[in-house]
Amino acid sequence: MKKILVLILGLVLHSASFAALDAQALLAASDTIRNPNKSFALTTHLIEYRKGKETDRNTLAIYSRPDGGRYRNLIRFVAPIRDAGKLLLKDGNDLWFYDASSKASVRISPQQRLLGQASNGDVVTVNLAQDYRAELAGEEDIQDGERKNRHCYKLALKASSEDVTYHRIEMWLDISSKQPVKSLFYTESGRLLKTAYFRHYQMQLGVERPSETVIIDGLDPSWVTVMRNSDFAWRDVPESWLQRDYLPRFKPE
């Protein structure tokens, strides 16, 4: 009888501890790992693979500036040469694409494909806690992007507005570090769009951050896109760079 009471007490304490966890705070903690809290710049290489063979790649220079819990972004296409000079501006949840050849900017969707399985919304800096409501869905042992076992919190994220990139996300965070490990992204109808693994953590701008994101297509697992981040640096991002009217006059320093 005594053993049963101890077991029941343990289950009650575990349940109370589980309930006390704040899923939204966990999500916000993972945001601070992915994103520096001051203006910064980095370089992102996008590499697309089909059945293990590289089929396309491009390079982006990304400038990010925090603004009221969200980020405003200017993204400059660096390579290949055919795309060099094109710009992508994120102001709030509005995205604008500028092509120097036409000297015109057009509004685009964050869901629109950029390269491989990476969409426009995947390359901009986003604090998920601002755009999604999180619920704790449990604890699970999973294998990360480097085939190591991780004990993780599983979060279920639901979009709080219609203009975000994904309707629903499942996300796994390492219990000890709160590092994002894996995410599943879904359409509104519930179809799996892609799986992402956050890996190769490195000390960047004072925090261990993922230097690679591996994105796997939801239907074709042989279609893989790698987002490789480098050249992290604190960088003042002028207000003028984040104005749509300024795009034709932007010149990289």
TrEMBL record:
This is Outer membrane lipoprotein-sorting protein. Residues 1-19 form the signal peptide. Residues 72-249 form the Uncharacterized protein TP-0789 domain. SUPFAM superfamilies: Prokaryotic lipoproteins and lipoprotein localization factors. Keywords: Lipoprotein, Signal. It comes from the Bacteria. CDD domains: LolA_like. It holds the Pfam family LolA_like. It comes from Iodobacter fluviatilis. The keyword Signal applies. InterPro entries: LolA/LolB/LppX, TP_0789-like, UCP028205. The keyword Signal applies.
